[in-house]
Amino acid sequence: MKTYRFEGDMDAVTMEDMKPLLEEIASCNDDVQLDLEAVTFIDSSGVGGLVFLFKRLRMRDLSLKIVKAKGQPQKLFLQLRLGFLLDSSQEASAA
Fold first, then answer.
1. Are 30 and 59 in contact (CB under 8 A)?
2. Among 63, 75, 72, 83, which residue's Cα sits nearest to residue 11?
3. What domains, with CATH codes, occur in the chain?
4. Quick count: other Cβ atoms within 10 Å of Cβ 56?
Protein backbone atom coordinates (compact mmCIF):
# COMPACT_ATOMS: atom_id res chain seq x y z
CA MET A 1 0.00 0.00 0.00
CA LYS A 2 1.33 3.42 -0.96
CA THR A 3 0.63 6.40 1.28
CA TYR A 4 0.34 9.98 0.04
CA ARG A 5 0.06 12.98 2.34
CA PHE A 6 -1.94 16.01 1.23
CA GLU A 7 -1.83 19.44 2.89
CA GLY A 8 -3.88 22.63 2.89
CA ASP A 9 -7.15 23.09 1.04
CA MET A 10 -8.49 20.81 -1.67
CA ASP A 11 -10.50 23.37 -3.63
CA ALA A 12 -10.92 24.41 -7.27
CA VAL A 13 -7.62 26.31 -7.32
CA THR A 14 -5.43 23.65 -5.73
CA MET A 15 -7.10 20.72 -7.49
CA GLU A 16 -6.12 22.15 -10.86
CA ASP A 17 -2.49 21.91 -9.75
CA MET A 18 -3.06 18.44 -8.27
CA LYS A 19 -4.42 16.87 -11.48
CA PRO A 20 -1.05 15.46 -12.58
CA LEU A 21 -0.45 13.96 -9.13
CA LEU A 22 -3.93 12.37 -9.05
CA GLU A 23 -3.32 10.92 -12.53
CA GLU A 24 -0.01 9.49 -11.34
CA ILE A 25 -1.56 8.00 -8.19
CA ALA A 26 -4.46 6.57 -10.22
CA SER A 27 -2.03 4.73 -12.48
CA CYS A 28 -0.01 3.10 -9.69
CA ASN A 29 -0.24 -0.64 -9.14
CA ASP A 30 -0.77 -0.58 -5.38
CA ASP A 31 -3.62 0.06 -3.00
CA VAL A 32 -3.57 3.72 -1.97
CA GLN A 33 -3.88 5.40 1.39
CA LEU A 34 -4.35 9.17 1.57
CA ASP A 35 -3.30 10.94 4.75
CA LEU A 36 -5.50 14.03 5.04
CA GLU A 37 -4.42 15.08 8.52
CA ALA A 38 -3.12 18.42 7.21
CA VAL A 39 -6.10 19.10 4.91
CA THR A 40 -8.33 21.78 6.39
CA PHE A 41 -10.99 22.23 3.70
CA ILE A 42 -12.44 20.26 0.80
CA ASP A 43 -14.96 21.61 -1.72
CA SER A 44 -16.74 19.90 -4.60
CA SER A 45 -13.59 20.00 -6.75
CA GLY A 46 -11.66 18.16 -4.07
CA VAL A 47 -14.41 15.57 -3.66
CA GLY A 48 -14.50 15.16 -7.44
CA GLY A 49 -10.76 14.53 -7.56
CA LEU A 50 -10.97 11.92 -4.81
CA VAL A 51 -13.96 10.19 -6.41
CA PHE A 52 -12.05 10.15 -9.72
CA LEU A 53 -9.13 8.51 -7.93
CA PHE A 54 -11.37 5.99 -6.18
CA LYS A 55 -13.07 4.96 -9.44
CA ARG A 56 -9.81 4.64 -11.38
CA LEU A 57 -8.28 2.45 -8.68
CA ARG A 58 -11.42 0.37 -8.27
CA MET A 59 -11.51 -0.39 -12.03
CA ARG A 60 -8.23 -2.19 -11.48
CA ASP A 61 -9.33 -3.93 -8.25
CA LEU A 62 -7.23 -1.60 -6.09
CA SER A 63 -8.47 0.22 -3.02
CA LEU A 64 -8.43 3.77 -1.71
CA LYS A 65 -8.50 4.47 2.02
CA ILE A 66 -8.50 7.91 3.63
CA VAL A 67 -6.83 8.26 7.02
CA LYS A 68 -6.53 11.01 9.61
CA ALA A 69 -9.25 13.20 8.06
CA LYS A 70 -10.73 15.55 10.65
CA GLY A 71 -12.93 18.61 10.90
CA GLN A 72 -14.70 19.77 7.74
CA PRO A 73 -13.17 17.11 5.43
CA GLN A 74 -14.25 14.27 7.72
CA LYS A 75 -17.77 15.68 8.15
CA LEU A 76 -18.10 16.20 4.40
CA PHE A 77 -17.20 12.58 3.62
CA LEU A 78 -19.83 11.40 6.07
CA GLN A 79 -22.50 13.81 4.78
CA LEU A 80 -21.86 12.69 1.21
CA ARG A 81 -22.07 9.03 2.26
CA LEU A 82 -18.42 8.51 1.36
CA GLY A 83 -17.61 7.34 4.87
CA PHE A 84 -16.67 3.94 3.45
CA LEU A 85 -13.46 5.60 2.22
CA LEU A 86 -12.50 6.65 5.75
CA ASP A 87 -10.52 4.49 8.12
CA SER A 88 -13.23 2.75 10.18
CA SER A 89 -12.00 4.23 13.48
CA GLN A 90 -12.51 7.74 12.06
CA GLU A 91 -16.08 7.10 11.03
CA ALA A 92 -16.93 6.00 14.57
CA SER A 93 -15.18 8.99 16.17
CA ALA A 94 -17.23 11.46 14.11
CA ALA A 95 -20.56 10.07 15.25
1. no
2. 72
3. 2-89 (3.30.750.24)
4. 18
Q: What is the pLDDT along the chain (95 residues), one digit of tens a residue?
A: 999 999 999 999 999 999 999 999 999 999 999 999 999 999 999 999 999 999 999 999 999 999 999 999 999 999 999 999 998 665 445 54
**For residue 1, which amino acid is it?**
M
Q: In a 3-state reduction of DSSP, which class is residue 8? A: strand
Residue 73 sits at φ, ψ, to 5 deg, of: -60, -45
- Could you tell me if 48 and 15 are in contact, meaning their C-beta atoms sit under 8 angstroms apart? yes
Terminal Cα distance for the chain, rounded: 28
